[in-house]
Design goal:
Elements: H1 5-12, H2 17-20, E1 22-25, H3 31-38, E2 41-44, H4 47-54, E3 58-61, H5 68-85, E4 92-95, H6 102-109, E5 115-119, E6 125-126, E7 129-130, E8 135-138, H7 145-155, E9 161-163, H8 169-180, H9 182-195, H10 202-217, H11 236-257, H12 262-282, H13 285-295, H14 301-321, H15 330-355
Length: about 350
């Protein structure tokens, strides 16, 4: 919620924040700090009290996916009952957990509500260049035209919305997450090579892999940091070539099995993989770690993707880095591609489990 707060402050006007916006938090230690940073009343662990105090037109609902269903069934339901009993205007909902699906909100809160699931990008800039990545959004039911237009005005503050059919959301997320873990991969590979007395900067690894990705995909991005195939030399290049190719192929294989449109999948994977390698190339390690921490909600799908990478894919790559002079054959490349594809499937299944 802190990442998307500009959508709120720009919409209502900063001078109106104290009277038109409030929030809740479970973080007692930072309660005072949040009040000071955002200039609004922040209530500790009492969502129903906050809702009744504000009687909002719009609810930004952003708990971890693991607790979202319970909050919908209890506190949100109690508030919507209160609204109907007192003949107030039903609030619309922007729901930020990717799960549960919209049908769960309708089931507990009524078929006459408006709910849209929104997945913002936590990547606002890379190397000082502002990113223009829209948030992903989906609604199981069409919103009234006026409310739909208002929604797009609100999100224009942060690069707008890209709307998807609801049945595609988790698959698109799972595919994107397997690209999102690649900056962590560059840090890990640099650490591994340093331990093997073959030190190389993680940013050079990212530069080389990004240059190879752009060359193979015939892709470029003028506003970004330049990348180069000269950033890495020697036998390591064949391993990096195989990783880039296998990573792309693995995500694309998953997207095909998930029945995402071919052209959408290819454009999405090409762009996202380049973006995340650019991020690794341009940013310090602490920024990479912070991005993972901010984006990976506890129990959520990105946390699962990072776990799959660390437990399954990273050890597989580490073994290859231990024998750089050995040829990289199609069998190894295909194995890595399958691990990446399976990683995306694991993320998708985790999302579906949270959705039940």
């Amino acid at each position: 919620m802190e990442e998307v707060f500009p959508c709120i402050s720009e919409t209502v006007g900063k001078q109106n924040l104290p009277t038109q916006v409030n929030a809740t938090t479970a973080d007692e230690a930072d309660l005072k700090g949040k009040r000071e940073r955002f200039g609004i009343e922040v209530i500790l662990s009492d969502n129903l009290a906050a809702l009744k105090a504000m009687e909002p037109d719009l609810i930004f609902f952003a708990p971890p996916p693991s607790v979202a269903p319970k909050l919908i069934e209890t506190e949100l339901r109690a508030y919507f009952d209160y609204v109907r009993e007192n003949k107030l205007t039903l609030p619309d909902i922007f729901a930020f957990p990717p799960v549960p699906a919209g049908k769960v909100y309708y089931q507990h809160l009524g078929e006459d509500i408006n709910v849209m699931r929104i997945i913002p990008s936590a990547l606002k800039s890379i190397g000082g260049v502002t990113m223009s990545t829209p948030a992903l959004a989906t609604a199981e039911k069409p919103w009234p035209k006026e409310l739909h237009e208002r929604t797009h005005r609100i999100w224009a503050v942060q690069n707008g919305l890209s709307e998807l059919p609801s049945e595609m959301l988790l698959s698109v997320l799972a595919a994107g997450i397997m690209s999102t873990v690649t900056p962590e991969m560059t840090l890990d590979m640099a650490d591994i090579l340093k331990r093997q007395n073959s030190p190389i900067n993680y940013q050079d690894l990212a530069s080389y892999m990004r240059a190879r990705h752009q060359q193979v995909r015939n892709f470029s991005r003028e506003e970004s940091l330049s990348c180069s195939l000269d950033a890495v030399t020697g036998p390591l290049c064949q391993v990096l070539d195989a990783i880039v190719g296998a990573w792309f192929a693995g995500i694309l294989d998953f997207a095909s099995q998930a029945k995402l449109p071919d052209r959408l999948a290819e454009v999405m994977v090409t762009n996202t993989l380049d973006t995340m390698l650019w991020f690794a190339q341009a940013e310090p390690p602490e920024a990479i770690k912070r991005h993972s921490e901010v984006s990976a909600t506890k129990g959520g799908v990105l946390e699962k993707g990072l776990m799959v990478y660390q437990e399954v894919i990273s050890p597989f790559i580490e073994k290859k880095l231990a024998s750089l002079t050995a040829p990289v054959d199609d069998h190894w490349r295909n194995q890595l591609s399958e691990l990446v594809s399976q990683g995306a499937k694991t993320v998708l299944e985790h999302g579906k489990m949270l959705d039940n």
